[in-house]
Design brief:
The chain has 13 helices and 14 strands. The protein is α/β, with parallel strands linked by helices and about 375 residues long. The longest helix is centred in the middle third of the chain and has 16 residues, at about 225-240. The radius of gyration is 29 Å and the shape is elongated.
């Protein structure tokens, strides 16, 4: 008889001899199930002493099973750790009850509420959400979107990185519901849910002008990105409305990494006629500009597009043009499921409003 007691291996895990495991009623690691061999309906039926059809009815919530039999089947399911094979259901019903979400950057705080809203709508429709990040790479976006389609998701919500989405045409024709959010699709007709980027930027710059500013800098994202281009257009429109000629040195578009944004801000704030205010094109730009302004002795006004965490706790608080990312996600997901229900046919462009939140930084008058 093996009387060895459990010992610890070098990793700190307890090692239980097989004879001890059997004496304690624990499963034998070297017999029975193996990794990857999941219990089946046959296993449940055998343990509960019922037929396969009875197990199927219990698993799928169908009528025709007595309470006592249902209890026995459920006990067998719990004991075996059985999970329904949804792949088989897909073959029968043609739907996976799953949707894909392709984001730009999972680490960007803007996408947190958006993703959560999509997930909540999916859950309300009994669907699973699978998401991934394109990292602003068009090739990676295409690879991820097609990988999700290969896994037979019912629909896609996409924040596009590229400007050519013809690769999705076969998938859409095959029945994959598709909605673009934050930016429109390129070279195909598809539903899109956007914020009013042009109007929001125009209002933000007009707010700075109303507080006496004429030399206003704009620091934005890559010019090929729809939101960056629209916000630049709004900036130009507000300046034109006020009859203010825009100098090339007041505008800077490019990558939003802190080094590039810092250089752009410092150039605008230097020289014989520096800007007296900055309009930051997105949340990442705003954070870097806040840091740059904290190092300058001269007071400079700031309005940012997108809200940022702790913006109200800074001195002064950061005035922003806020967009509702949760509403973007919720509207896009609801649109997606209406497509899946067959109630939508013609693609539409939906534009949600932005709002100005004044906290102090955008209300500072020019220092000179």
């Amino acid at each position: 008889m093996d009387r060895r007691i459990p010992v610890d291996d070098r990793t700190g895990h307890r090692i239980v001899p097989e004879t001890t495991r059997r004496a304690a009623g624990l499963p034998d690691r070297h017999s029975g199930s193996r990794y990857g061999n999941r219990p089946t309906m046959k296993d449940v039926a055998a343990r509960a002493g019922v037929g396969l059809k009875t197990v199927s009815r219990v698993v799928n919530g169908e009528p025709g099973v007595t309470p006592d039999t249902e209890r026995r089947v459920q006990e067998a399911i719990d004991a075996l750790g059985f999970r329904r094979n949804d792949s088989a259901r897909v073959l029968r019903k043609g739907r996976t009850a799953s949707i894909g979400l392709v984001l730009e950057d999972l680490a960007d705080p803007f996408y947190g509420p958006l993703s959560r809203a999509v997930e909540e709508v999916a859950r309300a429709h009994g669907a699973l959400l699978i998401n991934g990040s394109s990292a602003e790479d068009p090739d990676r976006e295409q690879e991820l979107a097609l990988a999700l389609c290969a896994r037979r998701v019912d629909g896609l919500v996409i924040i596009p990185a590229g400007d050519d989405h013809r690769y999705l045409e076969p998938e859409i024709k095959a029945g994959v519901a598709t909605v673009f959010v934050d930016r429109p699709a390129g070279k195909i007709d598809a539903d899109v849910v956007l914020s009013d980027n042009y109007g929001g930027a125009r209002a933000g710059v007009a707010h700075l002008i109303a507080h006496g500013h004429r030399r206003i800098g704009f620091i934005g994202d890559m010019p090929r990105i729809h939101t960056a281009a629209e916000r630049l257009r709004g900036y130009r429109a507000a300046m034109e409305d006020a009859g203010i000629p825009v100098e090339d040195s007041w505008m800077s578009l490019g990558a939003t990494d802190p080094e590039r944004v810092r250089r752009a801000a410092e150039e605008m704030l230097s020289g014989p006629a520096p800007v007296t205010a900055v309009f930051a094109g997105n949340n990442r730009v705003t954070v870097t500009v806040v840091r740059v302004l904290a190092e300058h002795s001269r007071r400079v006004a700031l309005v940012g597009f997108d809200d940022i965490e702790l913006a109200d706790l800074l001195q002064p608080g950061v005035t922003v043009i806020a967009q509702d990312s949760a509403a973007l996600g919720r509207t896009a997901a609801e649109r997606l499921f209406r497509q899946l229900d067959g109630t939508l046919v013609v693609p539409e462009r939906i534009e949600l409003p932005t709002r100005l939140i004044t906290r102090g930084s955008g209300e500072l008058p020019p220092a000179d």
